[in-house]
Amino acid sequence: MSDEEKSRTVKHSIPFDVLDDVLTRFIILVPEAAKENLIRICFQIELAHWFYLDFYVGNDDRCKSCSIFEFSAHVFQHIPSLKSEVPRLAHILQEWKEYKQSVPTYGAIILSEGLSHVLLVQSYWARTSWGFPKGKVNEDEDPAHCAVREVLEETGFDISPYLKPDEYLESVINDQVVRLYIIKNIPQSTEFKPRTRCEIKACNWFAVHDLPISKKDATPKMKMGVSPNSFFMVLPFIKRLKQICSSQASVRRHRQKTMSLNENDTTSKSKNKGDEQKFKKRDKKQSKRQLFTEDDDYVVEFNAPSWLNFKFNMTEIINCLDNV
């Protein structure tokens, strides 16, 4: 059976009162001009679908989980102005998905203290896959604001105090711009609680050096028992991420080494200064003469102990002169 035939035969498993409530929140009140744009309507249907999964499924025994296609079929069949488009539903949703891929996505790479671990999230709809918290930008929304909003929704953590607009990694994946802001030195003890239900299943820390740099990299399988395919959404960023963490680690090691050398140098200088004062004190007691060069400003202390008790014997000198 084709998607078009399926859209015509979907039965209303969603209670009408629930459907009315959800559609009133997200579609009915949309401006008339916007309702003429089916792509815009699909975005509203997506929001309505998330709301339905978050607040009705699991709380109302009458409501069962369903795909975006099934939910859209219910909506198109329920709203009089959309009924005529039911035969084209599959085509409309395909156009909407293609358009979504062209909308930039913004999020964050959250790194632990020491940049040893990175936070990844797991979706309910891709339970074997892990990715960075991120989401699509709204119309006229600032990229950094979008990243803060999406990360807050998916992890419950506010990155705004740590976000630096110029520090990010960016890639074009399937014609879609994906920008991830680098958030550093977040304690691993931080508690993450997704604010959206039925979207994010888990938030976990992963060691950066255990993440794969290619689909054939068996490191995560050996270290964590997880297939490298589970990280396909983060693969375009891993190599650059490891370079950042490695360079930062080198800087820290160099800084620690420099501090250690400075401490040793300070200790050595202190010791040398003590020895110098000790020798000067002793020399002051022993030295009774100074030799002067032609430069009167240049003084050399003469410290030969054998000259300290030297005296001229004048009698012997006179006798020698008399005998000459």
Automatic annotation (TrEMBL):
Q: Where is this region: Disordered?
A: 249-288
Domain Nudix hydrolase: where?
Answer: 101-232
Q: Name one GO cellular component term.
A: nucleus
Concerning SMART domains, the annotation shows: DCP2
Q: Where in the cell is it found?
A: Cytoplasm, P-body; Nucleus
Any Pfam family matching the protein: NUDIX
Using the UniProt record, give the first listed, main subcellular location. Answer: cytoplasm
Which InterPro entries does this chain map to?
Answer: DCP2_BoxA, DCP2_BoxA_sf, Dcp2_NUDIX, NUDIX_hydrolase-like_dom_sf, NUDIX_hydrolase_CS, NUDIX_hydrolase_dom
**Spans traversing the lipid bilayer:** none
Q: Where is the composition biased (Basic and acidic residues)?
A: 266-278
Q: What is the catalytic activity of this protein? A: a 5'-end (N(7)-methyl 5'-triphosphoguanosine)-ribonucleoside in mRNA + H2O = N(7)-methyl-GDP + a 5'-end phospho-ribonucleoside in mRNA + 2 H(+)
Keywords (alphabetical) are:
Cytoplasm, Hydrolase, Manganese, Metal-binding, Nucleus, Phosphoprotein, RNA-binding
Start-end of Basic residues biased regions:
279-288
GO BP terms, alphabetized: mRNA metabolic process; negative regulation of gene expression
Q: Which GO terms describe its molecular function?
A: 5'-(N(7)-methylguanosine 5'-triphospho)-[mRNA] hydrolase activity; metal ion binding; RNA binding
Q: What does this protein do?
A: Decapping metalloenzyme that catalyzes the cleavage of the cap structure on mRNAs. Removes the 7-methyl guanine cap structure from mRNA molecules, yielding a 5'-phosphorylated mRNA fragment and 7m-GDP. Necessary for the degradation of mRNAs, both in normal mRNA turnover and in nonsense-mediated mRNA decay. Plays a role in replication-dependent histone mRNA degradation. Has higher activity towards mRNAs that lack a poly(A) tail. Has no activity towards a cap structure lacking an RNA moiety.
Q: Which family does it belong to?
A: Belongs to the Nudix hydrolase family. DCP2 subfamily.
Q: What is this protein called in UniProt?
A: m7GpppN-mRNA hydrolase
Q: Which organism is it from?
A: Hypothenemus hampei (Coffee berry borer)
